[in-house]
């Protein structure tokens, strides 16, 4: 047991250390946040052009170098994989499409959506060359390739719901995005719920055709952070987003470099990447009313279709998911 003198000495020592930490820049808040961060892990993906430019240009590495924080990059092949990695704690920041982020949160994935990196319109339903399919209503009983837990999957569900159908009315063939495209090209499925750049590749190289492309269902690209990381290191989240914003603005000014980076990663011809980029809107970066409305309506549509439990409070989950405090104005 400590003596009263030793206890006083200990208390005084803690106070002195806290003061010293504040003076040299750590502050008592940083002390409460736990161990210093030595490495931040982010994903990169063909469906996130801004994140790819951030990786290629090294803006984040430049920002964090003086603090001795390294940056690790992990490729993700779809929103479902990004969500898996976030949930497992193997990445700190992961890029998904918006509705997939909501479903992840509904399913207990502790993430926060903090930034918009694109609004893609290449999420669509495709049919093989020669198919007579004309609407989602004609998919009843058909085989449809889809990657569960991604926005193309949610797009499919919502497109079916517009015609009074649900997943039970079709034969879902669960494949990763690339395998879905191949299945469509081989004629193994009647339709595929795809996303760019694979949508563009299927059109140009395989003669596939988009037969459902609904502006009402156009999604957003969300950058998500692990909730625990955001709570423990809010200032680092802001710095990551500042680097992302720098990359977004750079991408708008240097579209040729964006195309070059995507060609290298996707290993697809320039004309395919050019079509993808025609369908990418990089003009917005903050999650605001439009993005919130989309996520809310997507959740309500999934609930109405029976995909999400009726007991789930969609509004509350959207509030838990979207976090705007890391942008400059917090709006």
Tell me about this structure.
The termini are far apart. With 331 residues, the chain is of the alpha/beta class. The strands form 3 sheets. A 5-stranded mixed sheet has the order 7-6-8-5-9, sandwiched between helices. Strands 3-10-4-11 form a 4-stranded antiparallel sheet, sandwiched between helices. A two-stranded parallel sheet has the order 1-2. Residues 1-32 have low confidence and may be disordered. It is 49% helix and 17% strand.
Annotation keywords:
17% strand, 11 strands, 4-stranded antiparallel β-sheet, 5-stranded mixed β-sheet, alpha/beta, 331 residues, disordered N terminus
Record the SSE blueprint.
Blueprint: H1 4-24, H2 27-32, E1 39-44, H3 49-57, H4 59-64, E2 70-75, H5 79-88, E3 93-97, H6 98-106, E4 111-120, E5 124-127, E6 143-146, H7 151-161, E7 171-174, H8 177-186, E8 191-194, H9 198-206, E9 209-212, E10 221-226, H10 227-232, H11 234-253, H12 255-266, H13 270-278, E11 280-281, H14 289-304, H15 314-321
Parallel strand pairs: 1-2, 6-7, 6-8
Antiparallel strand pairs: 3-10, 4-10, 4-11, 5-8, 5-9
Rg from alpha-carbon coordinates: 23 Å
Instruction: Say how many strands there are.
Output: 11
Largest sheet: 5 strands, mixed
Query: Strands across the major sheet, in which order?
Result: 7-6-8-5-9
What is the count of helical runs?
15
Helix percentage: 40-55%
Q: Low-confidence spans: pLDDT under 50, at least 5 residues?
A: 1-32
Mean pLDDT value: 89
Strand content: 15-25%
The shape is globular
Q: Distance between the terminal alpha carbons, to the nearest Å?
A: 52 Å
Order of helices and strands: HHEHHEHEHEEEHEHEHEEHHHHEHH
Query: Which class do the helix and strand fractions yield?
Result: alpha/beta
